[in-house]
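Entry
Fold in token form

___
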Amino acid sequence: MTRSLIRAVRWHLGRDRSDGAPTTPLYFVRCTTEACGGKSRIVRTLQEAQDWPFSHIAAHPSHTGYEARCTMYWRMTPTDDRVVPVDPPSTYGRPS
């Protein structure tokens, strides 16, 4: 049997600043009109993402539905080495 130390620490959620992580969100838009398959390239600004449906509808006036996706890269880091006392849950997070 392996012994382990289980503890809770305070965490911070922030932009992933590690090497190679994108520094800005990435955007992608696709047309949701049945059997279209039209899609934008991946862009780094919201304005570029919003421009694509306008250029697409100019060529395809009946294509009025779009899906937009935004990808951001985050990283969780401990804020300090202080241990936060916790009691193990006895009811799996539900009040007893």
Remarks:
- The beta strands are 11-15, 26-31, 66-71, 74-78.
